[in-house]
Every structure is written in C-alpha cells, then in structure tokens.
Queue: 2 jobs
Job 1
Amino acid sequence: MRGISVTQKLPLYVEAGVAFQYRTYKEDIEDSYYDYTEKINTASLNIPVHLLYRFNVTNDFAIEPFVGLDFRFNISGKYKIEADGESEDLNLFDKDDMDQIGLDAFKRFQAGWHIGVNLNYKPVYFGVHYGKDFNEIHDHMKVATTHITLGFNF
C-alpha cells in the first residue's frame, strides 16, 4: 500500500494498492444418485483504497485503524466437474459454458468494503482486515475475505 497524507496537521492518509488473488474451492459430493467432485479456481486483480489514521503510541509502536473500498477485476475462473472417470472444464465467465449447466455467467467486476487495523513495531508490521462485497459475483454468492498480514516496513 502506498499512502498520501490528507492533511498537514493530522496523521490521516489515503492508501491504495494492487493485489493478485487466487482462490480455489473443492467439494466432493456423494448422495444416493450422484458421486462427483466440483472444483472452482478463480484469479482476480484487487485494488484496495482506504482511509487510515496513524496513532503513534511510542516512537517505536503505532496503531493504524482503516476503512476503505475494494475494486476487484475477475481475470479468470474455471469450473471442473469430475464424475465416473469423466471430467468437464467450463469457463465461469462464458455465457455459453455456463448455459450448459443451467447457470448465469459470473460477473467480471465486483466492488466491496473493508475495515481493519495495522500494528507497527519498529520495522515489523502486522495487519488484520475483513471485507465483504456490495455486489454478488454470481446469484446468491457474495465474497467475504479476512486478511492477516505479517511483514517488514522499509
């Protein structure tokens, strides 16, 4: 994240960044009629923008609560179903592929919100934040994320 000071008098910053996210989901489904495996893999580019306030507790320790928005561009999405030694691969964003299984195509763009806190002790950085989407990637399927970060400040 890269910060821009909002005011000269307060330690208030607007920060923006770019993150690549890869998600995977797998479920083995067994019932009296079917026995199959579903796999979903998605890749997206996430652009978080947030407002952060820095509390300098001591010269070595700071607490930084923040709130912001996320803009997600879904780059790729694959759906694979395996049953009885057969498998089929579908593109989650392709209307024709998703029509084969009776679903609408997934959405390429999502927007959401996030809230969190960073702790800085000397060069060590620890952060936690939670976020949720405003719009669904697919019918009845919203994305919520929890991030835990450990790093070093340069």
Job 2
Amino acid sequence: MGQASGTISIHRLGRGRWLLDEKSHRPDGIWAVLTDRGTATTRMGSSVKVMEEHRMLILDNSGSLTVTVPDASRTIAVLLPGESGDLPLPTSPSGGLVISVRRGSTSGILAHILRGLAEDDHGGFNEHGRRVCDQLTAIVRMACAEETATGRSDVHALFTASTEAIENRLWDEDLDAEALATRLNVSTRTLHRAFRAQGATVSLWIRERRLDRCRQDLQDPNFHHLPVGTIAAQWGLKDAAHFSRLFKARFGEPPRKFRAAAPQPVDDFEHQIEAGGRIFA
C-alpha cells in the first residue's frame, strides 16, 4: 500500500442524508464507514449498500459518497490516506467490502480506533503523523484480509450444514430454500450465496439428491416390492409423472425400465441354492 499523506477526514453522521464529496481534492484514499448504532445506507455510483448495526464498509475514494442515516442511528465515516489497490475489495467499481465488527478481531480493533477518532475530533480535515496513518491503513488491510478469509470459511461451513440438513429432510416435499434458511437461522440470500460459491443452487441440489436416493432404492432388491411411485414419494417426489420425467432426464431412461434392468430379489430357498447363495443354520 502506498505511503499515507497524513490527512484523515472524520465525519460523525446522525439522522439525515449526507453527501461526502472529497474526490475533487483527495485523488486517492480509503473510506471506512462504521454503523456504530442502528443502520445506514451508502451509495457510491451505482453501488448501494444497506448496512446493519456493527458493520463497516471499506471502499475506495473513487467518487461521491452518500450516506443516509435514519432516526436514532449513528454512523462514523473516516477517509484514510492511502491507495486501495492492494485491498481485497470487489472488482466492480465502488463495490466496497462490508465487514462484520467482531470482538477479538482486527475489525473490532479498527472500529474502536474509528470511534476514538470521532470522539476526539470535531470533524473535518486534520493532520496526523505519517506513521500513524500508515498503521491505520495497515489495520484496514488486515481487517479486509481477515474478513475475506472468514467469509470463505463461513460460506463453506454454511454449505456443509445445508447439505447435511437437506439429507435429513429429503422426504419433506415442502423442503425448499426458504424452509432450509429458516431451519438454519440464516437469510435466503445468504443461503443462496453459499450454494453459488460451490457452483450449485439450493433447488437443484435438493432435486438431484432426491433422484439419487430414488435410484439407489430402485436398484436395491430389498425394495423391489415397493411401487415406483411409493419410492419416489418417500423422497419428496409425490407427482409420479413429474418424477418419471425428471428421472429420465437425469439417468437416460424411465424409472420402471431402470428397475427392470437392476438385480432381481431372490425369493426362495431353491433360487438361493441355484445362485450360490450362502445358507446359515
């Protein structure tokens, strides 16, 4: 990250719509916007972020920043010196990175520093030592890297928990993204993001796993006495005609034809002897 110029711009924002336009006299810089209490909405260019309490937005100073703060909320916006080129920010213009402020994390330390700056300052531009500015921008870089790594880990953990929950409720015909998100206590948006990270979708994953289980049961001689429709219904696919179409599209032949080609059950003693079956007294 480039050396800091030593100038920090601090804004304490209460209720209202605030336009922070510093691009004209600050060609570079890194914004750190903290929702210290309540919520806030930020806009830079075409990018809009709705931020919950104790979230921090890190983005470059590439344009005018608008911050809308509702009643009983407080937001701190600090423009730090430095260049954003080596920060792990989204590639889309002005996308920014939203960080969850957590105790014991770098983001928690950064939030504490921003609160201190806001309390000790009366707003506006202030000159700070270059070493202090360099340390602040280094902390921002560490917080971004930590959030990116944590985010990847959290997404993978959610995907794993989701697939386990799906396996346990494949029989439930009402199982869908909304029901799964409720069960896991996450938003449907977060759930869909976890599956997109794996190149999958919730609905497709559920459908494919149901078809896989039906295929296993249709091959199993122990379930040969069960009608095809019953097997499908046991795995949440109660529309027999729809199941047949899905099965053929997935495995290349209708379920009844697939079952006919599977090993047949051995029903009696003579067949077991002819087949070389092992008989235990």
